[in-house]
Specification:
Layout: E1 7-10, H1 16-26, H2 35-43, E2 47-53, E3 56-67, E4 73-81, H3 90-104, E5 108-114, H4 118-126, E6 130-135, E7 146-151
Helix pairs in contact: 1-2
């Protein structure tokens, strides 16, 4: 692991196995995404970003548009950062990259976040999201609740 700031670029199908490996690390009590799930998202044309430290994928994030103009909407599907690389601003940079894509389409953005994930919720609030709902037992199989959060497009 180097001290350099990871580069952000497009997630590739070749990254799917590493994404699935990180999912198992990051979301062990729930239903982590598989490599085929990541490949499906990319093949569907959704916008996914990668954070890389050299050749090592250390983070990923994805966004899908669910409605087009004039009332565009997007959903953030996932954001994950290798535990060894957390608290370095990588998740924030990935999120900002997705938000730039959504803002270019003037899209309102939604996401779900575990109610007990204070760090993630604070990050989203810092980037303009507000809690608009609660989904009881949203995450499976843990049964953890989720906040639904919303962000209006940047002016």
């Amino acid at each position: 692991m180097t001290a350099t700031v990871p580069a952000i670029d497009a997630l590739r199908e070749a990254d799917a196995e590493r994404c699935a490996e990180l999912e198992k690390l990051l979301f062990p009590g729930d239903d982590p995404w598989s490599a085929p799930a990541f490949r499906e998202e990319l093949r569907a044309g959704h916008h996914y970003l990668a954070a890389r430290d050299g050749d090592l994928l250390v983070g990923y994030a994805g966004l899908a548009f669910v409605a087009g103009p004039p009332f565009a909407e997007a959903e953030i599907h996932t954001i994950g950062v290798d535990p060894a690389y957390q608290r370095r601003g990588i998740g924030r940079e990935l999120l900002r990259g997705l938000l730039a894509v959504a803002d270019a389409e003037r899209a309102t953005v939604f996401l779900e976040v575990r109610t007990d994930n204070d760090a993630a919720r604070r990050l989203y609030e810092d980037e303009g999201f507000t809690v608009v709902g609660l989904r009881k037992r949203y995450y499976r199989p843990s049964g953890a609740d989720a906040h639904t959060m919303r962000r209006e497009p940047a002016a």
